[in-house]
Structures
1.
Amino acid sequence: MIYNLCFWFIMFLLYSVVGYVVEIINLTIMTKKPVWNRGFLIGPYLPIYGVGCLFMIFFLTRYENDLIALFIMGAFFCTLLEYFTSLVMEKIFKLRWWDYSNYKFNLNGRVCLLNSFLFGIGGIIVIRVLNPFLSWLVYLMPSIVTIWIGILLLIVFVIDFIVSCYITNNLKINFSKYLHVDATAKIKKEVTQALKKNILLTSRLLKAFPGVSSANQKFMDFLKLFQSAEKEISVLKMGKKKNHD
């Protein structure tokens, strides 16, 4: 029982890492500049890919010899997963983490036809190629090693999740008290204080989602102020360093 749980958790993380690599390669090609940070968590993994791949392995492996059925069902279920993940994260954090509004045939900006097509192709690759290979690699390890590695990775993942949620919640600002007034300086002060507390992790989170949007324009203004404050802090630090030299 413990071995099976550890085995599948390791598989989950492996697929999450694969998804992370796919995302940064795709964004690097699209933006024509290196992209290294991606995802909600601090570590180099995207759990939505891990969940999607495990779902396909558990429920779609029976269709591995029917490529058309595998493509359609992989596209459908992964698109459904992406839509509800976007919806839930927006409800929790009041943020739209990705937005496909500029893509043709999108649904509320949460999913789009292009991604659904890629999910279908990905489903075929996962079931026919990746899963046999990755399963073979993990099975090569002795049972006790698999268990210990699984437990250690779970601890790291849980800590990462807690810290990431804490930081993201700290990015929220109550704008109701700033309505109809020029509160730029006040908001900027709050942003600077947030940066001083979590400058490395919050900076990483914003870079991971360069196209992040929110349910209202006010939060977008906050993000712009956040990034502006970060640049000013960097400039001040460089100035102090030069004066000391």
2.
Amino acid sequence: MVVKVLKPVTAGRRGMSIVQRFGVLTKIKPNKALTRGAKRQSGRNARGVITVQARGGGAKQRMRQVDLKQSKLGVPATIRSIEYDPKRSSYIALAIFLDGEKTYILAPHDLKVGDRIVYNPNTKVKPGNRLMLKNIPAGIPIHNIELQPGRGGQLVRSAGGAATITSFDKDKALVKMPSGEVRLVPKEAFASVGLLSNPDHSHISFGKAGRRRRMGHRPRVRGKAKNPVDHPHGGGEGGSPIGLKHPKTPTGKPTKGYKTRKKSRSTKHIVKPRGKRRRGR
């Protein structure tokens, strides 16, 4: 993929860049049986409470049903097309199995139309194939990694992402994530081989606000510009400070430096946390 900087023929085009999608089908309709209408969450959780600010609106999109479990073992599949998915940053591939079943999978960077892939505990290590971690050599880029065998891929699913196996320890594999975090994952867990597609996704410049609005992003208002009923930083006359010792979120929780990552059952499997710096730096 190549990032193309557009000519400044208008004010909105000045500084705008796009990713040239060579070999990616963008003008065709997706497989109807593998798509469904996507409900707009607008930054709300299951209880209807806004947990992500400045979300809403945007163009209508259809959800592609991507197979993250990839549990059809031993049956080869052929890649029919590489397609754009409006709901995720990486591209997806339409795979057709020998028995005629069709499915969408996350497309690795080096996967091409006509390639054959297979899901098997022990098979050839090449982009698109899916096998157990214990059969993948250390240093090979992998994605869509399971945390528990049979649960489906949960880790490394965004554009340009890739993890690597650093070593093996008894029944666990030490996997280094794109964030730098190193965690223990069962050897029997499955993972797909290859660096995920669209690695230049983070290098594009949107250029104008309207392009972000079509993606469902709304303007973000500073907390100190709001009323006290809407934000803890609000109120006061003119450009007054927030009036607090530490900044807070709209719901009153500490922010900007306050660690909010919750402990879960998988926290004990983290060997090295992300963003860990050496002392003296």
